[in-house]
Amino acid sequence: MVQAVATPSDLSKSEALLLYEDMVLGRTFEDKCAEMYYRGKMFGFVHLYNGQEAVSTGVIKALRPDDYVCSTYRDHVHALSKGIPARAVMAELFGKVTGCSKGRGGSMHLFSAEHNFLGGFAFVAEGIPVAAGAAFQTKYRREVLGENADQVTACFFGDGATNNGQFFETLNMAALWKLPIIFVVENNNWAIGMAHPRAAADTRIHKKAAVFGMPGQEVDGMDVLAVRQATQEAIARARSGEGPTLLECMTYRFRGHSLADPDELRSPQEKEYWFARDPIKLLQVKILEWGLATQAELEAIDRKIQLVVEDAVQFADESLEPDPKDLYLYQFAEDE
Amino acid sequence: MAEYTFFNALRAALDEEMARDARVFVLGEDVGHYGGSYKVTKDLYKKYGELRLLDTPICENSFTGLAIGAAMTGLRPVIEGMNMGFLLLAFNQIANNAGMLRYTSGGNFKIPLVVRGPGGVGRNLGAEHSQRLEAYFQNVPGIKMVACSTPYNAKGLLKSAIRDDNPVIFFEHVLLYNLKENLPEEEYLLPLDKAEIVRRGKDVTIVTYSRMRYHVLKALETLLPKGYDPEVIDLISLKPLDMDTIGASLQKTHRLIIVEEDMRCGGIGAEIIASINDRFFDELDAPIVRLAAKDVPTPYNTRLENLTIPQPADIVAAVEELLGGS
Ligand SMILES: Cc1ncc(C[n+]2csc(CCOP(=O)(O)OP(=O)(O)O)c2C)c(N)n1
Ligand SMILES: [Mg+2]
What we know:
heterodimer, A: 336 residues, Rossmann fold, 5-stranded parallel β-sheet, two-stranded antiparallel ribbon, 9% strand, B: alpha/beta, 5-stranded mixed β-sheet, binds magnesium ion
């Protein structure tokens, strides 16, 4: 498993705090979502990301703004890490016209062309080939159109998705054509109520890359620095035309599958084991240990993020709903 | 004017659009080196290279998803379904992502994608290779569906489909690829949403599309000498349906026969009948007659196969019964 080799000397203060802030944003935002859901402000299926923040932050903060990110239905925090404003994400969850998908998408369909955020895919595994399409596009721009394109696409999905044909089919195409893509598996050991070992004949997902001649690595998904480091290596490979990488990030979701899930199957021991490895606390400890920042500085970040999320809620609350006369708007390109 | 076979008309459309816009590329099974199962892309890879004539592995759902991702990020992919039936394996990507993603993204992304290929009942191809997918796909929001029927309209429609910023499902027919027609030298485009009036007439409207156009024309050889004067409309656009053209014809003839190769249950004809009920019910002087494929898997045996789809004699009989002797 990839363990971070970062020491205080190769991690600047500003970088450490940026990672910390992004993870706190993810956590605070999701906690607020739960509150808003129970208050009847958001609806439908809402899948929260608590516990997995090191993966989103570690991968996406290593990317450039013009790189692409493709997500699943558990997409709020990927969207935030990619830079979509908390206001636009919260407003979408409230079903408002100021949301990043204009209130048409909802929790599982977040999009932003401006941020090269490709979605928000509600069906398991269907985003994987779409992400490969974005990566193909980059290769095409470079090799056919003669453009200076070197964007990388990061494609997120769960352990459950790796038993789907689209996973294998896309790994094959990505390796075959050396596409600049990183497959980021967030292995939280569960697909709703299906434990990973009950679904996969071989549970070691990173091993599945090798049959396509693709590097695959197991990464400590609770350690943002380990995720970041593995991602940086994968990015370097992708940008230099060496092709795809698969990262299996070992992680855990701290809440039920969705806010509708009673979460009865996971054992208290299993949960305790992972709660003790809370990725935000782990980074906090390191930052303090290495003297990169003081407790007071971290608390100031916590307070700042609290305000960002409060502001997002207020913005979402005060925003307008879509106009009923616009029911058909956005269906076809010529609608606008 | 120069003579083109149907498949070469399609090839010319692709060639012209690929030359015009370097973002246009073709992907699918055997579209490159092999030149396509019906030779529509023959030798194009020599001119445009292997990335623009992308031979894919046999993974319909995933290469369709890949095309959608490429379209979202600014390319203009044309998928060839080796046989349209295989696209059943791509149903999720076509319905969820090609069809709905623009809407669910609140207009963030456009999906300029063409999915084209051979469908319809061929000769003894068996049930799976004889499918008509238009009935399945008509329920998908956000897509356009076009069925070409002549070398002339195939070329003009495919060029328009490639330039359209929406996903277009483009139906060709396995038995029409060798038709020949003289095509204009100069470039032309045809509208994706307009039906074609094949013959003007006054006593009954016959609405059809794809290969059934030729069964209708065959029936006219019997009907015209007997004094019948049908108006024949080739739908071309299967989604949206050009109900204005159908309605205008009904205002003249007040009678309608639908001739379709897809299955009766939930087919294109069923949708036309429902739409007429909504808008043109008062124009009808008689119940609408629907000649559709029987609701069975297409059998291999020639005699049974012919029984499943409407034949010219069925069309003659339907007109005679509807109009009485003339
Ligand atoms: C095609 C499809 N089948 C089933 C579902 C229902 N479903 C939603 S999430 C999920 C489990 C997915 O687990 P995993 O891929 O591990 O992701 P995680 O939820 O753990 O993040 C299932 C079965 C779905 N959304 N799409
Ligand atoms: Mg999981």
